[in-house]
Amino acid sequence: VHANKGTPGHITNTYRHQSVHSRCSGAVNWICMLSFPPGVDHTLVQGDVALSKRRNAMKCWSEHCKWGKSYNGLVEVPYTVNDSEKASIKTAMEMFHRRTCVRFVPRRGQSDYLSIESDLGCWSTIGRDGGQQVVSLSVYGCLDRGTVQHELLHALGFHHEHTRSDRDQYVRINWENIPAVNAFDFHKMDTNNLNTPYDYSSVMHYGRTTFASTLGADTITPIPDSFVPIGQREDMSDIDILRINKLYECSKYRNHQTQNNPLPEMY
């Protein structure tokens, strides 16, 4: 499930997996998941993360679930996409190409590749999964730039920002406003934070009312400043880009700065 594109920090919650049914019980169920109906072979957690068929955990720390570097030092990620979606997808990919060593390239027979499809909703697995790896970007609401980047970041190995292992220093999770079926979506993960700061402006951050049991209620509140905007889907933040460059060792791009927004000195 993703938030609608809108004013950062004031994003409306919308269920895009309209045919999804839940398999949950108990007030706080660790294994609460969402799965598609029979015939669609994917199980989702956190709204848009498809569980890997090859790995028994969500985290992606090993080299096996990173995309490999080519001889030229670039991380080439093969993909296929329908012509009807190609323009929107390529626009969202441009930021990766300009500011990181990741290059999404049309598939030329590679065995491992992203198959970008207009399936039910917006979702992806975490990291390289092997073989044909579906990234679902429905034409009905998933083709804005930030949402495409969000799912591609999942495919590169990144989690939602609010599930970081150190998140309790930066946000308060308002469990009383979260339905039991969505409790898992707010649990912390055993994440590799790459020695980067928590990023309220990350394109991977949930909005403040995501999955709220009551319309307009906060499920996530930034601390200590509760007015900090969260949940934007406009474009990747500088820290999103920094993490890509750290995870994939993009040395040429590590100290890249924008004219108005210099990256933090982390190297």
UniProtKB/TrEMBL annotation:
Coiled coil: none
Keyword Protease: yes
GO molecular function: metalloendopeptidase activity; zinc ion binding
Annotated catalytic residues: E151
EC number of this enzyme: 3.4.24.-
Residues bound to Zn(2+): H150, H154, H160
N-terminal signal peptide: none
Gene3D superfamilies found in the cross-reference section: Collagenase (Catalytic Domain)
Matching Pfam families: Astacin
Record keywords: Cytoplasmic vesicle, Disulfide bond, Glycoprotein, Hydrolase, Metal-binding, Metalloprotease, Protease, Signal, Zinc, Zymogen
UniProt cofactor(s): Zn(2+)
GO biological process: proteolysis
Identification of the protein by name: Metalloendopeptidase
Organism per entry: Scophthalmus maximus (Turbot)
Biological classification of the source: Eukaryota, Metazoa, Chordata, Craniata, Vertebrata
This protein's encoding gene: LOC118285175
